[in-house]
Design goal:
The protein is an alpha/beta fold and about 260 residues long. The protein folds into two domains: about 170 residues, 3 Solenoid (UDP N-Acetylglucosamine Acyltransferase, domain 1), CATH 2.160.10; about 80 residues, no CATH class. It is built from seven helices and 15 strands. The strands form three sheets. Strands 3-6-9-12-14-15 form a six-stranded mixed sheet. The protein has a five-stranded parallel sheet with strand order 1-4-7-10-13. The chain is elongated and about 80 Å long. The two termini are about 45 Å apart.
Length: about 260
């Protein structure tokens, strides 16, 4: 038990840059308090002390603003950031190293008994205000965007966003995964990142940039074919590295300040 508590504290330091001292974390982190109280109430629930377990869970809800049913199964190093408004249902299952932000609901879609809440595999991150509903599975390493409403399974390593949620960044089993991976590679080459701006986002600039990146990929493919023919004609031909993109010049040409992260 003490080992798990130390792991919970370490998880706060690993995922919360505002954490500075262990005493501060232990005494002022509502997410940590909610998890520790849940572990005790879950122990009582498994022993058959349902009323006492529910009473303890209700007390934790009053103290922390986080409602975790004592029947929920939660893995190790679980982290709830901020925490206010988090609701986790009775049959929810959460794997190791998962992270939930404030306003998240792991809820059900039916009044029938049995499995009715979601299962989160290891290393899942659920953004603020998101709702994951029903007996669905969110695959290992998946991400749920803020305010998303998820009612269908999410593949491993995918990112789901929107209402209703769609898989914006695909999992490896999805046929469009390679397209998304290629675009992310082009983003890195260009010196900027469009993470989480998917095809269904109503952003004309993002759509235009995606079209440019796809065209650049086609040009790269043609250049590689041409280089192969040139090597056949002239054995002395060697492929030279292309010049690196000048990030400042690129952003300046778009009328943007590359030093700004848009967080002001």
């Amino acid at each position: 038990m003490l080992r798990k508590m130390r792991e919970d504290v370490r998880a706060v330091f690993d995922r919360d840059p505002a954490a500075r001292h262990w005493l501060e974390v232990v005494t002022t982190s509502p997410g940590l308090h909610a998890i520790w109280i849940h572990r005790f109430s879950h122990f009582l629930w498994n022993l058959g002390g349902n009323w006492l377990a529910r009473l303890i869970a209700q007390t934790a809800r009053f103290l922390t603003g986080i409602e975790i049913h004592p029947g929920a199964k939660i893995g190790r190093r679980f982290f709830i950031d901020h925490g206010m408004g988090v609701v986790i249902g009775e049959t929810a299952e959460i794997g190791d190293d998962c992270t939930l932000y404030h306003g998240v609901t792991l809820g059900g879609t039916t009044w029938n008994p049995g499995k009715r809440h979601p299962t989160l595999k290891d290393r899942v991150v659920v953004g603020a205000g998101a709702k994951v509903l029903g007996p669905i599975e969110v695959g290992e390493g998946a991400r749920i965007g803020s305010n998303a409403v998820v009612t269908r399974p999410v593949p491993p390593n995918a990112t789901a966003m929107g209402i209703p949620a769609r898989n914006i960044l695909k999992g490896k089993t999805d046929p469009e995964f390679e397209v998304e991976r290629r675009r992310r590679d082009m983003h890195e080459k260009a010196g900027f990142d469009l993470y989480a701006l998917g095809d269904d986002m109503p952003d004309p600039i993002a759509r235009s940039i995606y079209a440019i990146l796809d065209q650049l990929h086609k040009v790269d493919q043609k250049m590689q074919v041409m280089g192969g023919y040139l090597q056949d004609v002239n054995p002395k031909y060697r492929e030279e590295e292309l010049p690196e993109l000048d990030e400042k010049a690129l952003m300046g040409g778009l009328g943007l300040d590359s030093s700004s992260d848009g967080a002001e």
